[in-house]
Prior knowledge:
Elements: H1 2-33, H2 38-56, H3 60-80, H4 86-89, H5 91-115, H6 121-132, H7 136-145, H8 152-177, H9 184-206, H10 208-215, H11 219-239, H12 244-255, H13 261-286, H14 292-320, H15 325-334, H16 340-351, H17 357-379, H18 381-388, H19 398-402, E1 412-415, H20 419-430, E2 435-439, H21 442-450, E3 455-457, H22 463-468, E4 476-479, H23 484-497, E5 502-506, H24 510-519, E6 523-525, H25 527-540, H26 546-567
Helix pairs in contact: 1-2, 2-13, 3-12, 3-13, 5-6, 5-8, 5-14, 6-16, 7-8, 7-17, 8-15, 8-16, 9-12, 11-12, 14-15, 14-17, 16-17, 23-24
Amino acid sequence: MARVKSEGKMDATFLGLAVILFAAFIVSYLVRTLNQPLIIGYIIAGIIISPILVSIGASTSTINLFSELGISFLLFIVGLSLNPKVIKEIGGASLFIGFGQMVLTFIATYLVSGSLMHADMITSVYYGIAVSFSSTIIVLKLLSDKREIDSLSSKISIGILIVQDIAAAAVLIFISSMSGMSGSGTWEAFIGGGILIILLLIGGYFALPRIMKKIAKSQELLFLFSIGWCFVLAALFSYIGFSMEIGSLLAGIILSTSPYATEISSKIRPLRDFFLIIFFIILGLSLQISEIQLILIPAIILSGISLIFKPVILMVFGRFFSYTRRTNFLVGSALSQISEFSLIVGALGLSMGQISRLTFDTIILTLLITIFLSSYFITYSGDIYNKLSGALSIFENKKAKRSVHLRRDYNTVLFGYNRIGFSILNALKRMKRKYIVVDFNPDTIAKLNKFGIPALYGDVYDKDFLDDLKLKDLSLVISTIPEVETNELIIETVREVNKDAIIILRAHTVEDAMRLYDHGANYVLTPHFLGGEFVARMIKHEKAGDQDYGEERKKHIKMLKEIVEQIGDHPMIEKN
C-alpha cells in the first residue's frame, strides 16, 4: 500500500514537472515575441501553473531541489568567471563607479525603505542589497543581441557588473556566516570559515593544477570532476553551518585560475540553464497573487530607485571620468534593473528567518518590473537618447571637450581608435596623410596625446561637434565604430556637406555591411571575414615554408607589442 502511495506521489511529481516545463515554454515563447527576457516568462509561468500543481498533488520538495541545484550551478559558473586577474582588467573607472554606485544606492534604498515603507532595519538592509546589484545575465544577453558587446559603454557596464559580482560574493559569504549563529559563536564560525577558505584557496592553487592536468585528458572525467567538486564544497560548507551557495561560489573561484575554467563553464552551462529555469518558475510559484496589494506599492518604490536613481548616480560618476553624455546614458540604462543575485540573497535571508515572505515577494515583483522596463531601455536606448539628449547635457563634462584644441590642417578623420584603428593609423602615417583621431574615451585620448598623435575627444552623436570638424574639407573618413546606427549617422552627416569624400566604415555582420553600402558607404570593413581571407592567402602558397611564416610571425609580434605600448592590452571584458 505504501509502495502504491509512493508511486502515485512520484507520478504526480513527474506530471508536475512536465506541466512546469511545457507551461514555461508556451509563456516564454509569448514573452519572447514582446522582446522580453525569458526569465520573465519563467516567473509568469510559475504564477499561472501554481493552482494546477496544487490540484494534481505534485511534490514541491522535489521540484525545490531542482531549483537549489540551479542556484548552485549559477554560483559555480559565476565563481569560474571571478579569476583574480580580472580585477586588473576592469579598469579604475569601472571599479570606482561600480563601488560608488552600490554604496549610494544602498544608502538611498535603506533610508527610503525606513521612511516611506516603514520597514525595520534588517528588511531595509536586504532591500538596499537587492537594489544595489544589476543583472549580469540580462545585460550581457541584451547587449549581445544588439551586437554592442565591444562598445565603450558596454565595456564600462561589464566592468561594473564584475565589481558587483565580487561584492555579491562577499555579501553571500557574510550572510551565510550568520546562519543559525549568534554572539561569540558567530565570530568563531566566521574566523573558522575564513581559515577554511584560505586553506582551500592555497590547496587549489598548488594541488589542483597537477590533478586537473591528468583529469583533463578525458572530457568526461573533467565534466564529472567539476560537478563533484561543486557539490562537495557546497555540502561541506552547508555541514559546517554556512550556506551551500557560498560553497558552490567558492568552488568556482578556486577553479577560475585553472586553464580549463572556460571549458568547464561551457560544459556546465546547459545544466545550469535547465535548473535555473526551474528556479525562476519556483519563484513564480511562491509569489502570492492574493497578497499583491500588500507588495505592489513597496515594489514600485524600489523599482523607482532602481530605474531612476541608480542610472542617475551612474551618469554622475561617468561625468566625473569625462565620458560623453551618450556613454553615460547607455551605461545607466543598461544597469537599471535588479539582479538574480538579489533573489539569491533574498532567498537566503528568508531561509534564515531574517526577512518575511512578503519582503521576499516584494523583491521578486521588483525584479519583474525592473527587468521588463529596463529591457526596453536597453533595446531602444539609441532612440531614447536622441529624444533626451538636450536634457542629458548636465551629465557631460564640457570642460574635457573644451580643453582640446582642434587642429585645422587635416584631410582625414579616423573615428574610433581600437584594434582596427591602430593598424589604420599606421597606414595613414606611412602615406603621410594629415589626419586626426576622434574618440569618446578620455583615457584613449590621453594615451594618444602622450605619443604625439593628434586626437580629439568627441561624440559622433553631438551635431555641434561634427560641425566643428569641417567635414566639407575632408577627402577620407574612416570609422572603426561597430554600431551600425552610428555609422549611418556619419554617412548622412558627411554626405550633407561633402559628396566626394571616401567613407570607409566597419560592420560586424553581412547584413549590417549591406545596410551601410545601401546608405552610401564606399567600403565596409568586415574584420572577421577579412581575417579569414588573409589566412587563406597565406596557406594558399604551397611553397611557403616555416621561414615565410616566421617573418609574418615577427611582424605580428612587433605590432602586438606596439599596441600594448600605446593603448594597452585588450581586456577579457572586451571580447565577444
